[in-house]
Design goal:
The complex is a heterodimer of chains A (112) and B (116). Chain A has 112 residues and is mostly beta strands. Chain A has no helices and eleven strands. The radius of gyration of chain A is 13 Å and the shape is globular. Chain B is mainly β. Classes of the chains: A mainly beta (112), B mainly beta (116).
Chain lengths: 112, 116
């Protein structure tokens, strides 16, 4: 699979390969994390979430990994498809806070 | 997105004029948010509401005000529009606010505002 280093804004991946998108979050007290997908001209859409008492959570073709020691979150997409081309955002939510804080986003482009 | 509607979808306005954007929800969710999205900045919170007439500032609230007179509507007003407020504005709703497991936010389709 292909991955992007932390803070890099773009990722190009071959169709059928696995993708790994990384995110560094800022608040060590955050206890809830979400990945969103945003297609061109649309609002962000919920993909998967994870609580801080978990290290890994799987959905349909997606897996989120959480490493609290280094404040790192990753999204793995299995067998990347053209429809996965989008901007992906991670978001964090500190405890007792009504708000989400978003990262800058990674643009994923799937090559045919 | 189902249950949340933003209007207008596009607007061009002149510097110095007031502008109001509307967010309407049919989900009866308690929490509503206004974000702006700019290249290189991701989504930044402008204002949010945790109930009717209960609002608070986000990280980029200067130049903006909000009102929520009923559960389903959250209005964002640019008091006197400036070119720096050219952006895409997203409204979001949440039932639990703090996220809750598998809640997250539901976003509207956005309003593209251009200030000339």
């Amino acid at each position: 699979g292909e991955s992007v280093g932390l803070h890099l804004p773009t990722l190009s991946v071959q169709e059928g390969d696995n993708s790994i998108i990384n995110c560094a979050y800022s608040n060590s007290a955050s206890d809830y994390f979400i990945w969103y997908k945003q297609e061109s001209g649309k609002g962000p859409q919920f993909i998967i979430d994870i609580r801080s008492n978990m290290d890994k959570r799987q959905g349909q073709r997606v897996t989120v990994l959480l490493n609290k020691t280094v404040k790192h979150l990753s999204l793995q997409i299995a067998a990347t498809q053209p429809g996965d081309s989008a901007v992906y955002f991670c978001a964090e939510n500190p405890p007792n806070d009504y708000k989400l804080s978003f990262g800058a986003g990674t643009t994923v482009t799937v090559r045919a | 997105d189902a249950g949340i509607t933003q209007s207008p979808r596009h607007k061009v306005t002149e510097t110095g004029t007031p502008v109001t954007l509307r967010c309407h929800q049919t989900e009866n969710h308690r929490y509503m948010y206004w974000y702006r999205q700019d290249p290189g900045h991701g989504l930044r919170l402008i204002h949010y509401s945790y109930g009717v007439k209960d609002t608070d500032k986000g990280e980029v609230s200067d130049g903006y005000s909000v009102s929520r007179s009923k559960t389903e509507d959250f209005l964002l007003t640019l008091e006197s529009a400036t070119s720096s407020q050219t952006s895409v504005y997203f409204c979001a709703i949440s039932e639990s606010g703090t996220g809750g497991f598998s809640d997250g936010y539901t976003f509207g389709s956005g309003t593209r505002l251009t200030v000339v």
